[in-house]
């Protein structure tokens, strides 16, 4: 990373009223580039993501690894917004903020006087960033939304890849939330650019439903354009051998990607030891390959079975064929290419010691990110933030006594 005297977003103050993944993942990118992100959490439980690593099916650990990823470099303030005094504290904090990020449900925002119009009345320059499950309009706007339903299922991505006569394991935790959070981050930065030009804040919003549709937009556009969808076929009769996984002799899976067949077809056949295929009339042209795809799939399948995954890496790289082995999580986390590009970066954690974490997915040549820190403990920064906001020791003690704040 390059070094600069001041982080790019160091002058930004962000208030986060959010839980779980989508909205916090947008705010953590702001924090990565130096923004002060004050995460306001309810008393007792805090953000539910503090304990979501304990749900059945996730990797077992005492460390709250989901919370770490999306909450590094933030400050945690425990504040009871259901109490009038808590709301008054919030109003004082938000009055000086540049951005408010929230994924509270619409009814809760209205009930707690946190909707955009109420916040705008306090701070007309604020960028109000709202993340929802199903959008702000329509019959489903008040439904709870999580990526497993609003992003993966409703986008028809699962329709594309899941077999109707079987069951596959679920998508990884947060795998739809994080790209949706990136969309929210982009909306925030667009609004900040507009504010730079006009001086006025605005509301930006996005939803899991919208981001799921965008991620599967090519297939949805096919439907919108009246394209004819093909019937689902078994592997051995697939439409294209390139879309398949191939077992190697040591039980691993290889994945191919060939777009330019004029360039790649003959080298690929050389690589897999089938140099006769390009001159075989059954496979010499695209049309011929399509008509004889089951036989071609068989040829390629049998070829990959003869050698190990390491062998195929070497040979396919030699012939410049796009490919990847389907990795284990250990391989994915310890990928040398990820380390070389600072995708996986060091984290000095007070409890775990020297460990690593996943970086946010882009860099700027002119600035650097904040060194990742441990995600805050619940209410860790409550007192410091309130003192900085001008609350006296006596006022803070009174708020603590009344259960409005904790920390």
Folded structure, characterized:
- This protein is an alpha/beta fold and 407 residues long.
- 39% of the residues lie in helices and 14% in strands.
- The chain has two domains: 13-216 and 346-406, Crotonobetainyl-coa:carnitine coa-transferase, domain 1 (Rossmann fold); 235-331, formyl-coa transferase, domain 3, CATH 3.30.1540.10.
- The strands form three sheets. Strands 6-5-4-1-2-3-12 form a seven-stranded mixed sheet, sandwiched between helices.
- The mean pLDDT is 95.
CATH-derived architecture of the largest domain: 3-Layer(aba) Sandwich
Low-confidence stretches: none
* Total number of helices: 18
Question: What helical percentage do the residues reach?
Answer: 25-40%
Biggest sheet: strands side by side, in what order?
6-5-4-1-2-3-12
The share of residues in extended strands comes to 5-15%
The number of domains is: 2
Q: Structural class, from helix and strand content?
A: alpha/beta
What is the CATH T-level topology of the largest domain?
Rossmann fold
How would you describe the shape? elongated
Class of the largest domain, according to the CATH hierarchy?
Alpha Beta
Average pLDDT works out at 95
The name of the CATH superfamily of the largest domain reads Crotonobetainyl-coa:carnitine coa-transferase, domain 1
Give the ordered list of helices and strands: EHEHEHEHHEHHHEHHEEHHHHEHHEEHHE
Number of strands: 12
């Amino acid at each position: 990373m390059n070094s600069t005297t001041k982080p790019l977003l160091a002058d930004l103050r962000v208030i986060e009223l959010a839980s779980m993944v989508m909205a916090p993942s947008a705010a953590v990118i702001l924090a990565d580039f130096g923004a002060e992100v004050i995460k306001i959490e309810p008393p007792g439980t805090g953000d539910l993501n503090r304990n979501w690593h304990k749900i059945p099916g996730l990797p077992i650990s005492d460390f709250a690894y989901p919370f770490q990823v999306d909450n590094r470099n933030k400050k945690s303030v425990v504040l009871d917004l259901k109490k009038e005094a808590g709301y008054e504290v919030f109003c004082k904090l938000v009055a000086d903020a540049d951005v408010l990020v929230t994924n509270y449900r619409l009814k809760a925002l209205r009930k707690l006087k946190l909707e955009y119009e109420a916040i705008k009345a306090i701070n007309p320059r604020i960028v109000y960033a709202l993340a929802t499950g199903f959008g702000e309009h329509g019959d489903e706007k008040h439904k709870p939304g999580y990526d497993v339903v609003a992003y993966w299922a409703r986008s028809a991505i699962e329709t594309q890849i899941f077999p109707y006569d079987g069951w596959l394991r679920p998508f990884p935790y947060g795998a739809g939330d994080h790209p949706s959070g990136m969309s929210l981050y982009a909306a925030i930065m667009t609004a900040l650019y507009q504010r730079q030009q006009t001086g006025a804040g605005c509301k930006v919003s996005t939803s899991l439903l919208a981001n799921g549709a965008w991620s599967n937009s090519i297939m949805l556009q096919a439907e919108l354009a009246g394209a004819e969808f093909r019937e689902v076929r078994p592997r051995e009769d697939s439409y294209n051998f390139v879309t398949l996984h191939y077992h190697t002799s040591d039980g691993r899976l290889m994945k191919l990607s060939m777009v330019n067949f004029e360039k790649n077809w003959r080298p690929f056949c050389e690589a897999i030891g089938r140099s006769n295929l390009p001159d075989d009339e059954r496979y010499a042209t695209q049309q011929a390959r399509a008509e004889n795809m089951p036989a071609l799939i068989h040829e390629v399948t049998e070829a990959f079975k003869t050698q190990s995954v390491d062998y195929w890496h070497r040979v396919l790289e030699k012939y410049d064929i796009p490919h990847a082995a389907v990795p284990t999580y250990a391989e994915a986390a310890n990928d040398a290419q990820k380390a070389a590009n600072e995708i996986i970066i060091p984290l000095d954690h007070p409890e775990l010691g020297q460990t690593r974490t996943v970086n946010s997915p882009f860099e700027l040549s002119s600035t650097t990110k904040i060194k990742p820190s441990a995600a805050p403990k619940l209410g860790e920064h409550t007192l410091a933030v309130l003192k900085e906001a001008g609350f006296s020791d006596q006022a803070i003690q009174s708020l603590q006594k009344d259960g409005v704040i904790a920390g």
